[in-house]
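EI: anyone free to look at a 165-residue chain?
SC: sure, send it
EI:
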Amino acid sequence: MVAIKTHIPYVLGIAGWSGCGKTTLIEKLLPELAALGILVSVIKHTHHHVQFEPAGKDTSRFRAAGAGEVLLASPQGFALLHDGDQPLTELLARLVPVDLVLVEGFKMAAIPKIEVRRTDYPAIEDPHIIAIASDCSPDSSLPVFDLNQAAEIAAFIAASCHAGF
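SC: here you go
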């Protein structure tokens, strides 16, 4: 029997240009959100080639032999290996139930996003941006947070989760 998920998490993108600090912001937000009692998972999308296990090792041999997916398990955790780029909706469905999923990447996804904006980077034109975290003071009608104030950003995210974005 397959378990049916009944808990749908809030999904929030952290958007910005490469090198602007998206990963660092997420890293700072995670303990702040946990302190607020919010269970969080993260989905990171990359266009770079990622090699999970070198050619010739067991998992790559299984996939080369035709396995659709290979789940690699160890005492430290597990990784599910699946060929091909997956839509965000399919990846979200694979996660265990949490309150919030932060998404880095998937720039074109129609999900609410916080933009990480640095002084030397142009603004991102995306109608799904609901706030800006920045090291400058951009002129915007959206809420603007100091990029270094993770607790304030986490409080905004928590309020947004409760409001349903």
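EI: The radius of gyration is 18 Å.
SC: 👍
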